[in-house]
Amino acid sequence: QLLLMERKLQEVHPLLTLCGQIVENWQGNPIQKESLRVFFLVLQVTHYLDAGQVKSVKPCLKQLQQCIQTISTLHDDEILPSNPADLFHWLPKEHMCVLVYLVTVMHSMQAGYLEKAQKYTDKALMQLEKLKMLDCSPILSSFQVILLEHIIMCRLVTGHKATALQEISQVCQLCQQSPRLFSNHAAQLHTLLGLYCISVNCMDNAEAQFTTALRLTTHQELWAFIVTNLASVYIREGNRHQELYSLLERINPDHNFPVSSHCLRAAAFYIRGLFSFFQGRYNEAKRFLRETLKMSNAEDLNRLTACSLVLLGHIFYVLGNHRESNNMVVPAMQLASKIPDMSVQLWSSALLR
To answer: Name one GO cellular component term (predicted).
Structure first.
């Protein structure tokens, strides 16, 4: 857990393998063993999600979901510990259920299964409302904020901007009730506002929100995510070349990329491709986008795949190769409809006219 918090992801993998063996070989009462297994699997799943590996995580996530189903059928009164240490529970059973919903939402958001993310968010929020009537544990508010952060991003992708704004307001209210929550989530809140501003085409406001978020975060992955989105704002504005070159150098996916996230590195290649496209350097843009496609296909990053395909289609369209353009745009449209990603659907439709 400490290695994950310190972002030492290379050191985590062998240690997780060893922990898995220890948990499987541990002899104890069923509920205690399942509780330990849930703890281990949550660490394993979050490790893969931190690394942006949404395809590789699927077997662990499935195990975790099966494990929580098993634990919910076991009764606490089955525990008759002979050792006081066996009384330790890292989380109550009901909290574990919400946590499993939460990591499922995180996975669905990264992979681009947005309807699934919505379904599990609804289940988790319903469960949280029930729990908060009887339990004032601060972890429940943390779960609620993280769930809302993810579903807000889903809303923006699916084109439900007004709902996203209402939920951003909910996150603000929750954070105002707790200085700890506000401190931990201020950067994320400004990032969400920046993403909302992009969705309504207010680029100056988006830049202000992302710049504030960068000042507030020390989290490497969040920093890289913000910089990637800020770069997209500068590309759209078209007159911020100095700032843009400086940002692109800091998230260069070809060398010294600042984080080990597969997903963020693939996104950095996409941003390079987008910039090259706007500069009219089409061969260079195609190279970057093919790299994005290779990486996104390897880990089922559906949104990045759809975005890369439609941009490649746009390049071929500009070059007058309409047949090759359609070969890219049609699958992009199909994938965007499945996600569903409103902006890619609109972009694809415009190219297919």
So the answer is: nucleoplasm
Q: Count Cβ neighbours within 10 Å for each residue of 220-249 and write b for 16 or more, e otherwise.
A: ebbbbbbbbbbbbbbbeeeebeeebeebbe
Taking Cα atoms as reference points, which of 220, 210, 288 lies closest to residue 260?
Answer: 220
User: Is 73's pLDDT higher than 90?
Assistant: no
C-alpha 147/C-alpha 120 separation (Å) is: 9
91-112: b or e for each residue (b if 16 or more CB lie within 10 Å)?
bebbbbbbbbbbbbbbbbbbbb
Q: Using CA of residue 159, residue 160, residue 165, residue 169, what is the dihedral sign?
A: negative
For 181-210, what is each residue's pLDDT tens digit?
Answer: 999 999 999 999 999 999 999 999 999 999
Place of tokens 């490649």: 312
User: Over the stretch 126-169, which tens digit does the pLDDT of each residue have?
Assistant: 999 999 988 888 999 999 999 999 999 999 999 999 999 999 99
Torsion angle of the four alpha carbons 246, 248, 250, 253, in this order, in degrees rounded to the nearest 10: -160
Q: Is 263:307 a contact under the CB 8 Å cutoff?
A: no
Q: Which phi and psi (to 5°) does residue 55 adopt?
A: -85, -45
Structure tokens at 140: 């429940």
- The CA-based angle 225-228-234, given to 5 degrees, is 140
The DSSP annotation for 199-222 comes to HTT-HHHHHHHHHHHHHH---HHH
Q: Are 178 and 136 in contact (CB under 8 A)?
A: no
Length of the chain measured in residues: 353
Buried b / exposed e over 38-52, threshold 16 CB at 10 Å, is bbbbbbbbbbbbbbb
> Residue 340: is the preceding peptide bond cis (ω within 30°)?
yes
The Cα 331–Cα 335 span in angstroms is 6
| Domains annotated on the chain, with CATH | 1-74 (no CATH), 112-131+138-202 (no CATH), 255-353 (1.25.40.10)
How far apart (Å, rounded) are the C-alpha atoms in residues 54 and 253?
19
